[in-house]
Every structure is written in C-alpha cells, then in structure tokens.
Amino acid sequence: MGSWEENIRRVVPYVPGEQPSDTNIIKLNTNENPYGPSPRVKAISMDMDFLKKYPDPRAGLLVDKLAAYHGLEPSQVFVGVGSDDVIAMSFMTFFNSGKPVLFPDITYSFYDVWADMLRIPYEKKPLNDDFRIVKEDYMNNDNGGIIFPNPNAPTGILVGVDFIEDIVRANTDSVVIIDEAYIDFGGESALPLINKYENLLITRTFSKSRSMAGLRIGYAMGSAKLIKYLNDVKYSFNSYTMNTPSIILGSEVIDDEEYFRNCLAKIIDTRDWFTEKLTELGFMVLPSKSNFVFAAPKSISAEELFMKARDNGIFFRYFKSPRIDRFLRITIGTREEMEKVVNFLVSVL
Ligand SMILES: *Cc1c(COP(=O)(O)O)cnc(C)c1O
User: pLDDT tens digits for 23-45?
Assistant: First the structure.
C-alpha cells in the first residue's frame, strides 16, 4: 500500500440546504422563488437534435442579451453555471496575491469553502452587534481581495451604493466582488460603478429572482479587463460550462420584464406582511431586502422550532453556528404558503 492518500486535495465541502422530493412540503429553506420561470419558457419547443453539437463556448446569445438588458458591452459580461460557478472561477482568477481575502464572519458559507479548496488565505471580519458590515474593516487597501453579498446573506441586510463605492475606491490594489444574488428584491445595484472602477465585479443569479434555480445560470459584470481575465481562466478549465438549453431558456426570460417585475412585487409585498406577523409573534426580525427573513423566536429555541416545523412539513434553514444559532432563515414563498406558516407558528407559540 502506498501513501497516495497523503497527497490528495482534502476539502471540507459546502453543505447545501436539503432538497426533499416530497412535493407536499412548504419548502422555505434554499431561497428559491415560488412563482416559476416566465411562461415564455414553457412555450418554447426545442428540436433536441442540437444536443449532438457542443454549445457555443461564448454563450453569445445569453451574453449579448444580458449586456443589452443592463446597457453594457458584451465584453463586460461573463456567464456561468449558477453564480456559484461564476464566483468560484472569480476566486481562482482574482484572489491570487498571498494576502488574505476579506469577507464578513456571517455571510454566504460557500466563500470560506472556495478559499480553503483553492488554498487562498482569508480573514473574516465580524459584523457588528446589529449584524451590519463594518466599512472600516475593508478600507486598508492591503488585502488579497474583498467579497460580500449585497444584501448580505443570511441576514438580508442591504448596504447603500455609497458604502460600496467607498470600499472599491479605497482598494485599488485588489478586486472587490459584490455578490448581488438578492439585489432584485428591493436593493439598489452597484452596477453603474463598473464603468468607473476597473476593479469591481458584480455577480448575479437566475436562481432567486428569476425562479430558475434548476437551470443553473449565473453571471458577472465588470470592466472588459476583468471579464477577459475571467474568460481566460474559464477556457483553461472547461470551455463549455453553459449548456445549450440553458443559453436558450435563459435568454428567453430576459424579454419578459413584466412577469419578472410582477413576481418581485408579490414577494416583496409578502415579505413585508410576513415580517409584521413575525414581529407580532415576538420574533426579532432583521430588516430584509431579500427574498428571505432572518428571524429569532422569543419563547422557543430556533433549533426546536426548526425541528417542529420540519415535522409539520415546513422547511426552514437553521445554522448551528456561533452568533446566529438563535435565528431561522425563512424563504418568502407564496402568500398562501406564508399564511400557513403563520398559522403553524401561532399554534406552537
Ligand atoms: C444562492 C446564492 C448564490 C448562488 O446561486 P446560484 O444558484 O449558484 O446562482 C450565490 N451567492 C449567494 C449569497 C446566494 O445566496
């Protein structure tokens, strides 16, 4: 027996939320959007014969659509297999200096997994007692890069564009990535800043606001220089990350702005209603600009409530981690689903 096992890349993997197959449950644990993709998707018929060919490595149809939609040049847009793929590729491309990459202690729990996997040093900066990002922690221009979601996850708390501009302007020697997975649910995007700062990358996903988590589409926007570097790494890893059905269906939904805006309005409306109900029930609810709320119950532990809900076919997300183990992250479903959740909470509390 050799010692091959000493020489493998060991990683502690990210643990995704459960994806139960039972369709009777109320699934509020992974921030999907309950309304489904634009009906235009269902109207498309595809001649499956095209599957014999490799997809367009540039995913041109989708890249060009997204560029036009956001008022950018196609050279400023990069697409990938979910924003997880886009962000992992960005870690590999941009976080390469030997200095620590900075992100909050409470944030998307994939960041430290990618950093560990790619052997990138990092430093977690604690959120303050109100669970807000402390800007001063990110102003030293002496780091290997910066990343955080806006709004942050799992807190749902948004920062303003000025806050982001200050950080980007102060860190001219590194790349700043703003993960805008939830920006469509009421936040103001930092996108206009990419024409002003070469070192800013914005990432987005179709999984949440566009209700297409099953297709796996994410994208990044930044200076043509950043996007070129990102593409160089992508083509050195796997030229054909995007499959043809994703390219076709993804570009189709971009044209249905009305459906998109309608779904967002419903979710925002339900979120604000649900937040009120939770507050009435004694929960401490952080101010959310996303499609979930982060809420701490008063008279029962979060873990116990999580288990009870699960037994009743309602799935929340619970993180047994320091500082946040008294909270539940609850995705905003349809109004009917959230009414059932309120009834359930009333019955247990
Ligand atoms: C959901 C999520 C992502 C990843 O989304 P994809 O489904 O991979 O596009 C990225 N960042 C944050 C903060 C998320 O919550």
Answer: 889 999 999 999 999 999 989 98
Single out the residue of 331, 315, 317, 339 nearest to residue 24, CA to CA: 315
Q: Is 114 near ligand 1, meaning CB less than 6 Å away?
A: no
Residue 1 has pLDDT above 80, yes or no: no
pLDDT of residue 315: 97
Q: What is the pTM of this model?
A: 0.97
Question: Among 103, 183, 207, 331, which residue has the most ligand 1 atoms within 8 Å of its CB, making it the best to mutate?
Answer: 207
Q: Which helix (H) or strand (E) holds 272?
A: helix 257-280
Looking up tokens 């160089």 gives 232
**Residue 205 CA, ligand 1 centroid: distance in Å:** 7
190 pLDDT above the threshold of 80: yes
Q: Using one digit for the tens of pLDDT, what is the confidence trace for 153-168?
A: 999 999 999 999 999 9
From 85, 203, 205, 209, the mutation candidate for ligand 1 (largest count of ligand atoms within 8 A of CB) is: 205
In sequence order, the β-bridge partners of residue 27 are 315
Calpha distance 260→90 (Å, rounded): 28
Whether 82 lines ligand 1, by a CB cut-off of 6 Å, is yes
Q: Distance, CA 320 to ligand 1 centroid (Å)? A: 20
pLDDT in tens, 251-274: 999 999 999 999 999 999 999 999
DSSP-based three-state secondary structure for 222: strand
Q: How far is the CA of 109 from the centre of ligand 1 (A)?
A: 10
Please check whether residue 139 is in contact with residue 188, taking contact to mean a CB–CB distance below 8 angstroms: no
Amino acid identity at 169: R
Task: Render 79-99 in DSSP notation, one character per residue.
Answer: EESHHHHHHHHHHHHH--SSS
Question: How many angstroms separate the alpha carbon of residue 84 from the centre of ligand 1?
Answer: 6
